[in-house]
Automatic annotation (TrEMBL):
GO terms for molecular function: ABC-type ferric iron transporter activity; ATP binding; ATP hydrolysis activity. Keywords: ATP-binding, Cell membrane, Membrane, Nucleotide-binding, Transport. PANTHER family: ABC TRANSPORTER ATP-BINDING PROTEIN, MALTODEXTRIN IMPORT ATP-BINDING PROTEIN MSMX. Belongs to the ABC transporter superfamily. InterPro entries: AAA+_ATPase (IPR003593), ABC_transporter-like_ATP-bd (IPR003439), ABC_transpr_FbpC (IPR015853), ABC_transpr_MalK/UgpC-like (IPR047641), Mo/tungstate-bd_C_term_dom (IPR008995), NA-bd_OB-fold (IPR012340), P-loop_NTPase (IPR027417), Transp-assoc_OB_typ2 (IPR013611). The keyword ATP-binding applies. GO terms for cellular component: ATP-binding cassette (ABC) transporter complex, substrate-binding subunit-containing. Residues 4-241 form the ABC transporter domain. This is ABC transporter ATP-binding protein. Gene3D superfamilies: 2.40.50.100, Nucleic acid-binding proteins, P-loop containing nucleotide triphosphate hydrolases.
């Protein structure tokens, strides 16, 4: 197990990068605490695999260093970094039994037979593979094969880090939820540093204690699931996390307050900065249909069982509100009220209001 430090990392796939646009990773400074459960979350192309490959040693960064417990490993090949990896698709030996597949990483390192047996059985129980230990891996479903792959990643207890790269891609949707919570449980038992890479917010938020959100080669926020949800530091986080995502509305800033489409909007606190683009961010959960507020027209209402998502239009701006119903009719004229404590201004994407208590 190790603390992982990424120091001033930058990476370009081009031989002579000319500017920031030529870097797949722009500048990454990060400390991953020993034993933590982390998720690396972002859309396709944001640089997750590049970062993972730099940590595992498959790729040497153009600039910066990777440290394991303070030791510089930037130049070390993957086999000298002592890490385990679980990929999108199962990496197992089809001709071997489930037992031998799980035992392989341990036998390969000369672990004695009694210890191998104890550890294989422990991991098999955790993954509910006990009854399948003697079956040949080739005869299993893709779900079970991926469970073995995970088991092979988890079986060694001497690794610096276990990295999961979109590990649930091949898993049946009905089983995904189960395996996600299983992984979380396993982390609590094993307490090895784990990094889970995904573009799926639900997977990231269920697994991780800390989520690292990336966009376009940059880390836009590191936080607990609650922090990312409650106070996004960037409009990208607000929009990417949550369903529907945060309402992001262009606004004017005057005298420390904000105006949207001519209406004054109360904020969590004073605006500290402005930029070329200033926007209000408020989550649908903090928008109410009220007697007073911003006049809007209901475009549609979707009943999601436990609550309703109302899509209202103010001019050509769309605002979503999560309400408990009853459903307003399409075309109904309503007023929208934002909860001031949960309404903030963003300048050029970054949070620009401060909370004064
Ligand atoms: N081998 C490569 N050569 C050139 N450019 C690459 C290479 N690998 C990735 N890139 C580029 O680097 C950027 C980051 O890609 P990366 O694969 O790290 O993102 P990602 O978040 O892992 O995406 P995905 O989830 O689709 O794998 C993208 O613009 C991608 O096109």
């Amino acid at each position: 197990m190790a603390k992982i430090t990424l120091e001033k990392l930058r990476h370009s796939y081009l031989p002579n990068p000319a500017g920031a646009q030529d870097y797949a990773l722009k500048e990454i400074d990060l400390d991953w605490t020993d034993g933590g459960a982390y998720a690396l979350l972002g859309p396709s192309g944001c640089g997750k695999s590049t970062l993972l490959n730099i940590i595992s040693g498959l790729l040497t960064p153009s600039e910066g260093r990777v440290l394991f417990d303070g030791r510089d490993v930037t130049g070390l090949p993957p086999d000298q970094r002592n890490i385990a990896q679980v990929f999108q698709f199962p990496v197992i030996y089809d001709t071997m039994s489930v037992y031998d597949n799980l035992a392989f990483p341990l036998r390969n390192r000369g672990v004695d037979a009694a210890r191998v047996d104890a550890r294989v059985r422990e991991i098999a129980t955790m993954l509910e593979l006990d009854g399948q230990l003697q079956i040949r891996a080739a005869n299993l479903t893709p779900d079970s094969k991926q469970k073995i792959s995970m088991g092979r990643g988890l079986v060694r207890d001497d690794v610096n880090v276990i990295m999961f790269d979109e590990p649930l891609t091949v898993i049946d949707p009905a089983l995904k939820w189960k395996l996600r919570s299983k992984l979380k449980e396993l982390h609590q038992k094993i307490a090895v540093t784990m990094i889970y890479v995904t573009h799926d917010q639900t997977e990231a938020l269920t697994f991780a204690d800390q989520v690292v959100v990336m966009q376009d080669g940059v880390i836009v926020q590191i936080g607990t699931p609650v922090e990312l949800f409650e106070r996004p530091q960037h409009t990208f986080v607000g929009h990417f996390i949550g369903s529907p995502g945060m309402n992001i509305l262009p606004c004017e800033v005057t005298g420390g307050g904000a105006r949207f489409e001519g209406h004054a909007v109360a904020l969590e606190g004073p605006v500290t900065r402005t930029g070329a683009l200033t926007e209000i961010g408020v989550r649908p959960e903090h928008v109410r249909l009220a007697d007073d507020g911003i006049p809007a027209v209901v475009h549609k209402a979707a009943d999601l069982g436990r609550h309703m998502v109302v899509e209202a239009h103010v001019g050509d701006r769309v605002i979503n509100a999560v309400t408990d119903g009853p459903a307003p009719a399409q075309g109904a004229r309503v007023h929208l009220a934002f909860d001031p404590a949960q309404t903030r201004v963003y300048a050029d994407g970054w949070i620009a209001t401060e909370v004064t208590r």
